[in-house]
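To whoever picks this up:

The parser on our side crashed when reading a file containing two proteins. I've narrowed it down to the boundary between the first structure block and the second sequence. Both blocks are reproduced below exactly, byte for byte. First block:
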Amino acid sequence: MPSNYAMIAAAAGAASAFVYASLLLGTPAAFILAYLAQLPLYAAGLWLGTGAGFIASGAGILVAFLAGGFAFGVIYTLANTAPVLLIVRQALQWRTNQSGGIEWYPPGGLLMSLVGLASALFAVLVVVFSGQPGGLEGAIETFLNEGLKRLSGPLGMDAAMVEKFADQMARFFPGIIAVSWLTMSAVNGILAQGLLSRFKRNWRPSPRMADIDLPIWLSGLTAIFALGAFLEGLGGFVSSNMLVLFAAAYSFAGLSVVHVLIGKLQWRGAALGALYGAILVFGWPIAVVALLGLIEPYANLKARAASAPPQV
């Protein structure tokens, strides 16, 4: 790798860590800014290759440790550099297909890589907190209780209501955080690839949303976790959170189905805008979208839509 490329990668990593370090300010704007901390890392890796991704990540980790200390550096590493390194490595893989063309790593595989990493981190946390009273769920409930009680006075919230809310949130809190993290990683990767494509600096062609396909075995695991969510204790806790994570994956797969279903409509842009707007405003349409993703391997909706004549 040329030295100037290494310098660019290191600068991207430092920029990522500085953006993430804005969290130390504790302002609402800082949380929004920190959401984009992965963008420079993705840009370096998807532009200059996996080696550049490692250099950018190393520089970012160093700056994060210097800026916020050990705990902050570990959080930055797990939340930002780990998913970027995994996705950049996978995204730049390719092979020659039967017709002699290049076949890049599929977007569904990239999504499953993030799901797998989130699942692994969740499993590690479950093991780490297994010796605590109530395990990971108990630790989260204590954390939420203490945090919400500090707000209960100014907000006039009843202590019993705070405790009940913390108990309910603790049940699904890791899954909610995992979904936010997965979405953050996907958004930053898409933004980085889009910027690189605009300036013709992309290593690989941009994956299409319509090409996201999930393995059929995932539906079997989803069914198992759906049943396990009714259990008490650790089994129900793990199953509930894995079900939330899988629902997020199926939401992406469902959006893929929607993109294909309306792909031949003349007003497809307006339809997509209306759908994404409804999801942001109301929230519940994402459940319908996730259901589409769940049934797609069995209903073959995308294949049927692709073979249908264009609509006006």
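<<boundary where parser fails>>
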Amino acid sequence: MEKYNERESLFVDIDKILGPKLRKKFPRFVINFLKRRLHQDDINEAIMQAECPVGAGFFDDALKYLNITFRTRGEEHLDPDKRYIFACNHPLGGPEALIIGSVFRKLYGDGFKVPVTPILAHLKPLTEFFVPVNNLSSKQSRDLGTRIAEMFESDKQVLVFPAGLCAKKIKGKVTEMPWKKMFITQSRRHERDVVPIHISGHNSKWFFFLSKVSRFFKLKINLGMLYLVDELFKQRGNEFVITFGEPIPYTTFDRSKTDLQWAAEVKDKVAKLAEGNGCVMNM
């Protein structure tokens, strides 16, 4: 009971996340459905079993709970004394944040930040590392701009997912979404070299189906987003490969191309990092 009381404040509570107004709007069966899809009980069990229930150590504990393993390639390219922007593909939505967190913990201690979906940002043991990104709300995007600026101005390593959204299946191929230019602009402004990162893997057929339905009906909300935590738990027992490319000096991003063109070029470099890691993805 003492252990429970110590960690209870870290637990994920869907009722509290929804708040009193939404709880009144949603029938109880809908809230219970969300609890199952967001794996409230599983996440709280992982917190209970963790050796490090809060802080960077929880990245490793969460991966252990999920029995997710990974291999790294290209770490020799990194200078431990430099501030970087790590630009990564976005194949999954959850595992890559945990995997990168585990790798960065070994490389940089607790000196890093990772943007994640608002749902994952409610994982209290890791909130100090997460910056919530809500691609569905313009208000949240404005708030995000301030938080992003603070990250780049700090001494912490910064990781971004320039696609903003998880990869989708288009014409039968798992495809990374076009990359936004923000990380190029911030690289030049804050004199941070960019490190391309590629992570293997992809989400389930069900996730891609829901995303396709959302596009077909032109829904403002991608239904697949509601299943991202569920997709994380579907990756139990899988092994991933994370590959670091050679850092790209910030001076590379001159005015010979637009920032959007430079972003696309870095995206192409990330796609090439997939060679030899068993991942098939159309970048």
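After patching the parser it read the second block fine. DSSP finds twelve helices and nine strands in the chain. The two ends are 49 Å apart (CA to CA).
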